[in-house]
Design a protein that fits this description.
This protein is mainly alpha-helical. It is about 75% helix and about 0% strand.
């Protein structure tokens, strides 16, 4: 029995890891897909196809679906860009409404809105999201963010100039 328990636990962790990777909507998979989508048009198309098929209401996955719409706007004709950005804004609103205290959702919205032209008037959450994320990051590891998302958000915030001075130094040292 003592030998069987560690074996079962090990098997459980291996299987749960495989199931997590097999789920196309696991957060780990979505992070990888999002980074690939941000890097190339082909990655953007693949990511949008995946997210367009999502019909559930998980707040984090909805935020990734919003990001996929924004990436689609990046690669679309001038005629369709605004439609995709407006759809992304609606999805972000729903995701934040469902979980307004989630750093990953706020990060995704900030990463999109901070890259939109100001004349569109769709970047009204940039300052709030930036302040929220700085507060959350400075609380790490008690922030509730896993190490992967913490590093991703911290690097984005510092490298893109969303935080500077003493806060950037503090974040870099974490």
């Amino acid at each position: 029995m003592k030998v069987l328990l560690p074996f079962c636990l090990t098997l459980f962790f291996i299987l749960s890891s495989l199931v997590s990777d097999a789920n196309p909507y696991s957060v780990a998979n979505l992070r990888r897909q999002y980074q690939q989508a941000a890097a190339s048009k082909e990655g953007g198309e693949k990511f949008h196809q995946l997210m367009a098929a999502y019909t559930q209401h998980d707040a984090v996955v909805l935020a990734y679906k919003a990001a996929a719409e924004a990436i689609r706007a990046r690669d679309a004709s001038m005629f369709n860009k605004l439609t995709y950005v407006q759809q992304a804004a609606k999805l972000f609103d729903e995701a934040v409404r469902r979980d307004d205290d989630n750093a990953e959702i706020r990060f995704l919205r900030l990463s999109v809105e901070s890259n939109l032209p100001a004349f569109l008037g769709l970047s009204q959450h940039v300052d709030d999201d930036r302040q929220f994320l700085v507060r959350t990051l400075l609380q790490h590891p008690e922030s509730g963010m896993d190490n992967e998302s913490f590093a991703l958000v911290r690097d984005f915030m510092v490298e893109r100039g969303h935080v500077s001075g003493p806060d950037a130094q503090r974040l870099t040292s974490l």
